Amino acid sequence: MLARGINRLRQLAASPSFHASGRKKWWKRLVQERILQERILQERKERERRVVLATAIVTMVQIYNGGAGFERALSRGKSKDGKPKATAAATAAPAASSSAAPARAAPARAAPARAAPAAAAPVSKPTAEKPAVAQDATLVKLAAGMGVMSDLEKKFIELEAKLVAQPAGQAMPGKSNIFANNEAWRQEMLKQDPEFFNRLANGQSPEYLWIGCADSRVPANQLLDLPAGEVFVHRNIANQCIHSDISFLSVLQYAVQYLKVKHILVCGHYGCGGAKAALGDSRLGLIDNWLRHIRDVRRMNAKYLDKCKDGDEELNRLIELNVLEQVHNVCATSIVQDAWDAGQELTVQGVVYGVGDGKLRDLGVVVNSSDDISKFYRTKSDSGALKAGNPNAPLVQVTKGGESELDSTMEKLTAELVQQTPGKLKEGANRVFVNNENWRQKMLKQDPQFFSNLAHTQTPEILWIGCADSRVPANQIINLPAGEVFVHRNIANQCIHSDMSFLSVLQYAVQYLKVKRVVVCGHYACGGCAAALGDSRLGLIDNWLRHIRDVRRHNQAELSRITDPKDSLNRLIEINVLEQMHNVCATSIVQDAWDAGQELEVQGVVYGVGDGKLRDMGVVAKANDDIGQIFRTKQ
User: Fold this and answer.
1) Is 269 annotated in the active site?
2) CA distance 217 to 451
3) 99-132 pLDDT per residue, tens
4) What EC number(s) does the entry state (predicted)?
5) Which residues line the annotated binding site for Zn(2+)?
6) Pair 472, 523: CB distance under 8 Å
7) Quick one: average pLDDT of 491-513?
8) Mean pLDDT of the residues in the chain
9) Taking the model in full, what pTM does it have?
10) Catalytic residue among 186, 263, 269, 571
11) CA-closest candidate to residue 150, choices 629, 631, 634
C-alpha cells in the first residue's frame, strides 16, 4: 500500500500540473485514504478474531464436556510419574500434517461404495470393535495456524483496496471466453439498436415472471425469443414454488408488487432430472430434501402414475402434474391474492417445454382472479377487502367450463391429462407460444439436430448464479446456446448457506453435472442492493435483503466515504459479489469437490446493464487452499 502511495507521489511530482499550491491538498487526501484503508483492514482482522474466539470457546466446551474435562486436562498435563510432559500440540502437529493429505484424497475412492450393498449380504459382520473415540475429541478439528489469512482472504483484502482506489462501477473487462462472448453479443445488440442498453439502464418493466428449472437446456429468454428486459426469471431444481421458500417468495413479491408483471409462467420440461430422481429410490444427499416436494406430488397422484405403460411415460406424466401443483402453489400465496384483491391484472399459467423438439406446450390452465382460488386457500387482506364471490369456487377454471370443489376440479384436469399421451400436450396460441415456434424454427434451420442432441442429457461447463432481473439473461449476455449454462437466479444473486434452493442447485451442478466453473454475477443498478441501501420497509422481501444489509454493515467504513449515491450502490454491488463468492467456496459441496480433485473454479463478475459489458472482479478460487481456515472443514 505504501509503495503504491509513493508511486503516485512520483507520478504526480513529474506532472507539470503539480505545483506548490496543490501539494498540500494532495498529500492530505493521500493520508486520509491511507487511514481509511487501514481502518478497513483492522475491521476485517477484528471480525476474524471474534470468529476465532467463538470457535475456540466451542472447542473448549467440547473438550470439557461431561464434568470430567478438567480432571482429564490436568491428567494429560502430567506423565505417569507425576512430572510435566510436552504439550500435545508440539508432538501431534507433525503427525497431523503427514496424515492430512491422504484423508482429503479419500472421497475420490468413495464413489463406488454405492454399489456395495448388492454384494454385502453374504459377508459376515466384522468382530473387531470400533476404534475408541478420544474423550477430548472436538466436533471440528482446528487447523494449525488458525487465524492466519488464506491466499483467497488476502486477495479479497487486496481487491477491496483496489476497489477503494478506483471509481465505483468501473471493474475491468475480463479475458476468458465468457467475456469475449459477451463482447460479441454486445456489439451485435448495438448494431441492431444503438439505444438498446441506454433504455435498459433506466429500469425494467417486464410483463412476464418466468418460474422454471435450472436445467441448462431451458433458457427462458431464448425459447421465448424475447430480449433482455422482457422476462423476470426465477430458476431452481424442477421449477418448484414452495410456500416456505423465501427465495421464491421474494422473487414473486418483487415481480408482482413492484414490477407489476401481468403474466406468471410456471414452466416444467420433459426430461427433468429432478422429477426423474423423485421417481427413483437413490439417496442423493442434501438435494433429497428439496425433491421431497415432488415426491409428495408423486404420492398424491400415484393412482394415475401407476397406469403408465413405461418409465418414460410415467416421468412425463409426473412432470405435467408437478406443473399443475406449482400453479396451485403460486395462486395460494398471499402475494398473488393481494394483487387480485387490489384489482391488478395478473394471470398464472402452466406450460411444459420439450427439450427434444423445442416446443412449448400449454397445460390448459389459466388462473386470473381470487374467484378461482379454493376456499381452503383463500384468505382475506387486513382491510377485509376480499371480492365477493362463490366460497366454493374452484382452484382453476377448466377450459370446458363448470364449477366444483377443489378436489373434483383437480380430478377433471388430471383426467384430461390421463386421456392424452404423456409428453404430447396441445400447443398454445398466444404470444408466448408463437415466439417459441419462431425461435424453434430458427434453431432448426441453423442445426437440424440441435434439439435431438439435447433430448437425453446436458453437459454444461458453467453454473451461473445471477439476479432475477429481466435485464440480465445469462445465456444471451455470454452468447451461449441452450445446454451450455446451468442457471440459478434469485433476488440480488444471493448464495446463502441456509437456502435449500441455492444449495440444491449447487449440489446438482457440482456433484452430478460436474460443471467446471461457478460464475457469481452481480449487475449494476441492482434493485435488491438499492433497497438494502434504503430504509423503506418492503414486506417479506426485507428478510431476504437482510443478507445484503449485513454486507453493507461490514463494509460501512468504505461505503460511508462515498458521497454519490450511485457510486455507493455500485460499490455495494461489487462487494456483494465478493461476499457471495466466499459463500459458495465455504460450502461443503464445493470443498468436497476440491478434496476429490475435481476441476472446479469459482469466479465473480459484474454486468453493466447500461453498456452490456461483463466485468471481471479479479479473483478466482480454484482449491481448498483458497478457503479461509475458519470455514475450511475436513471429511
Assistant:
1) yes
2) 9
3) 333 333 333 333 333 333 333 333 333 344 434 4
4) 4.2.1.1
5) 213, 215, 269, 272
6) yes
7) 94
8) 75
9) 0.71
10) 269
11) 629
